[in-house]
Amino acid sequence: MLPLWLQNYAENTANQSNPSEHAVHLRRSSAALYIAVAVTGGVVYFRLVKGWKIADMLYVTRSGLKKSIAQVTEGAGQFSQNARERRVCSATLVQACLSQQAGSLFL
Length: 107
Fold this sequence. Notes:
This protein has 107 residues and is mostly helical. The chain folds into 2 domains: 1-58, no CATH class; 59-107. It has helices at 4-15, 20-48, 54-57, 62-105.
């Protein structure tokens, strides 16, 4: 005795004028099934064999996000401090140039 879904498939294929369209649909769904089984198998392997948690498999975790935010904040603080130092240095250079220019004009 054949399963009911296989009997229905055989009847539908016999009634269709172009049975190859239905066969293509079955191939696509079986490919999706193979992909789903492979992904599930990979997750189970990493969870049971390697001892990883689901959070370890995610691209961004909370701890990783906190670390990256801290790095960006530190980099922004260093950038603003460096910009302040350069602004002061530029202002002193401009003042030195202006005083030298003023001294040379009135000689």
